[in-house]
Design a protein that fits this description.
Layout: H1 24-41, E1 45-46, E2 49-51, E3 57-59, E4 65-66, H2 77-88, H3 90-109, H4 111-122, H5 127-145, H6 155-164, H7 169-185, H8 194-200, H9 209-235, H10 250-255, H11 262-285, H12 289-306, H13 310-324, H14 326-344, H15 348-356, H16 364-381, H17 385-403, H18 407-420, H19 429-438, H20 442-470
Antiparallel strand pairs: 1-4, 2-3
Helix pairs in contact: 1-14, 2-14, 3-12, 3-13, 3-14, 4-5, 4-11, 5-7, 5-9, 6-7, 7-9, 7-18, 7-19, 7-20, 9-20, 11-12, 12-13, 14-17, 15-17, 16-17, 16-18, 16-20, 17-18, 18-20
Length: 473
């Protein structure tokens, strides 16, 4: 689930492109070391702060001042800070583990796969409907449930369906990867990105949903148009010789598509009810991570029993799904360690002050667009959505205060930069797995995806401009 794009290792990989890229944990530890070094080099200072309506401190612009006594952090703090950071982020870590377990149970029931297969096969044979419906489907599931690695096994099905409609494998990848990346970038209540970033920024989870929903469909429309434009070119070409069997075993995979049963229908209804309950509970009852975790845990138990998994299999699936996110939990801890080092070394506000000074006198819109560029670049090095939120939002949230921006705008810039760039960056394991299975060379994918990323970025910039002007919060 572009939990990493985002996070646990992809279970299906066919001849992936081997890149000499350091592991995310190694990169995070390197950044931690730079943060520790910064506490010795940079001037130590801070802004005055006040409490917002949620009791969270926000900085007061124009109040930066040097601290009276300098703090010296010893080298061994690099190791003691990690367990403290894990404890500090325990709420969101346990929430992610429970959501991962619940998604694993849902997949174990076959409901998610059966539902997606049913929709995909319903539009099979009609290329236009297929591209539009499948792209919207993947975008919607990613925007709400945060799915991404779950799509990898669907690659052979999509390639086969496209071959039957005389569409090439690149179209199938465009539908699948484009849909899920649009869903992550224009996320509505993605538990691995939006909720994490809002929690770190001191905002109410799922707040600002209406504005994100307003822009969700334009983003999806951009993705559909781009993929369909290529698909029409594919239709105008002679059918390729390999199109009848694009991937070994793909026909069998398509023929073995699971049937959508009444049990599956009930489970999908329960999932929809939980998503609605999340929004209602947060807005009307003031629910937070404890209540949301309980909601997903209850969903896992009920769906496991309704889906016929039984008690033991439900527990096994839940434990397996939570275990798959153990690496994500560590990434969150390491990323939180960066902020803790900067905070305890009293240079976090110094960095915010340094970033804000060149933007003084410029409209707040410039700051918002700058955040989008920074988050897009950082996603190459930290391809974990939750990890990137914990690494960057402790800086971006107070920077928004200084620049006169709402913190909700900073979160929006984060999710745009994190989500859309997944369509191109080679550190995205989901992208590389899907391309490997479909047999699409990465170089060919870049020629297809780079213009799409540019289009999405332009629309994202427009959404940020409107958000700043309208006072989105």
């Amino acid at each position: 689930m572009n939990r990493t794009a985002h996070d646990p290792p992809a279970p299906f990989m066919a001849q992936p492109v081997r890149l000499r890229v350091p592991h995310t944990l190694a990169l995070l530890f390197f950044i931690m070391s730079l943060a520790w070094l910064a506490t010795w080099i940079l001037p130590q200072g801070r802004f005055d702060t006040v409490l917002n309506e949620r009791g969270r401190p926000v900085v007061v612009p124009g109040t930066y001042h040097p601290v009276a006594e300098r703090v010296a952090l010893m080298p061994w703090v690099l190791f003691t800070v990690v367990p403290r950071a894990l404890a500090d982020a325990q709420g969101i870590i346990f929430f992610l583990l429970i959501v991962g377990g619940a998604i694993s149970v849902l997949r174990g029931t076959g409901a998610l796969d059966a539902g997606m297969h049913r929709i995909l096969r319903a539009v099979g044979g009609r290329p236009g409907w297929f591209v539009a419906g499948a792209t919207l489907l993947f975008a919607a599931v990613s925007a709400t449930l945060g799915c991404s690695t779950e799509y990898i096994p669907l690659t052979t099905l999509l390639v086969t369906l496209c071959a039957g409609m005389r569409l090439d494998a690149l179209t199938a990848c465009g539908v699948l990867v484009g849909g899920y990346c649009v869903g992550y970038g224009a996320a509505l209540m993605n538990p691995y990105t939006v909720i994490v970033a809002q929690e770190v920024s001191g905002l109410q989870p799922t707040s600002g949903l209406g504005y994100r929903l307003l822009w969700f469909f334009p983003f999806v429309a951009v993705g559909i148009h781009h993929v369909w434009r290529h698909a029409r070119q594919s239709l105008s070409l002679p059918a390729p010789r390999q199109s009848t069997e694009p991937v070994s075993g793909s026909m069998n995979a398509a023929q073995a598509a699971p049937l959508l049963t009444c049990r599956h229908g009930v489970i999908l209804l329960l999932v929809a009810m939980v998503l609605v309950s999340m929004v209602w509970g947060i807005v009307a009852r003031g629910w937070y991570l404890v209540e949301l975790s309980a909601l997903w845990l209850g969903l896992a138990v009920v769906c496991g029993l309704v889906g016929g998994l039984g008690v033991n299999e439900t527990a096994r699936r839940f434990a397996q799904g939570a275990g798959d996110l153990a690496a994500v939990a560590l990434m969150v801890g390491f990323a939180r360690s960066i902020a803790l080092l900067l905070e305890e070394g009293q240079v976090l506000h110094t960095i915010v002050y340094g970033l804000a000074r060149p933007l003084e006198g410029w409209p707040p819109v410039v700051g918002a667009l700058g955040m989008l560029v920074v988050q897009t670049l950082i996603n190459f090095f930290i391809p974990s959505g939750s990890g990137q939120a914990y690494a960057t939002m402790p800086i971006m949230a107070p920077l928004a205060d200084v620049l006169g921006l709402e913190r909700q705008v900073a979160v929006l810039a984060y999710q745009f930069g994190d989500g859309f760039s997944n369509i191109l960056i080679p550190t995205n394991i989901v992208l590389m797995a899907i391309l490997g299975i479909a047999g699409v060379p990465y170089e060919r994918w870049v020629r297809f995806a780079a213009p799409l990323l540019l289009k999405l970025t332009v629309v994202a910039a427009a959404a940020l401009v409107v958000a700043v002007w309208s006072g989105y919060r």
